[in-house]
Design brief:
This protein has one domain: 5'-nuclease (Rossmann fold), CATH 3.40.50.1010. It has seven helices and five strands; from the N terminus they run βααβααβααβαβ. Helix 3 packs antiparallel against helix 4 and helix 5 crosses helix 6. The longest helix has 15 residues. The chain is globular and about 40 Å long.
């Protein structure tokens, strides 16, 4: 089993919200070497930190936590194959580019794939591709 975290799930692991427990459960039940993210997730997560808090110390702590956890993920590259698949998904589904990139990255992984997201736009597309979805 492969578990894929999109950016919303990466952030959820480190922020006290209603979905944190869901993300933590998905992380702890995944095999240690089978927790994956797209290469885009770190950039998106770091950019979102400023929207989560105005406190400089909290921003730094959150960035440190995300970067520390990042080293535990297998990162799916956003190479031409992934970009082409994202373009195809965007032609077929009502997706934004970032969402299509995450799904295209997950689509490269061996099945079964558990897709962890708290972004409602990604859920139906992930389900249509045969992923098991973990969300709220």
């Amino acid at each position: 089993m492969t578990v894929f975290f999109d950016t919303s799930a990466v952030i959820a692991l480190h922020v006290e919200t209603a979905v944190r427990r869901i993300a933590l459960d998905a992380l702890t039940t995944a095999p240690a070497d089978a927790t994956c993210v797209s290469a885009l997730a770190l950039t998106e997560a770091l950019a979102l930190i400023a929207k989560l808090t105005d406190e400089t110390a909290l921003r730094a702590d959150l960035e440190d936590a995300i970067r520390l956890q990042w080293d535990q993920y297998a990162v799916v590259p956003l190479d031409q194959r992934c970009l082409d698949r994202a373009a195809q998904l965007m032609r077929e589904q009502p997706l934004r580019l970032a969402d299509a990139l995450h799904i295209a990255a997950a689509d490269r992984l061996p099945r079964p794939v558990t897709f962890v997201t708290f972004d409602p736009t990604q859920i139906p597309v992930a389900l249509s591709l045969g992923f098991d979805v973990v969300s709220n």
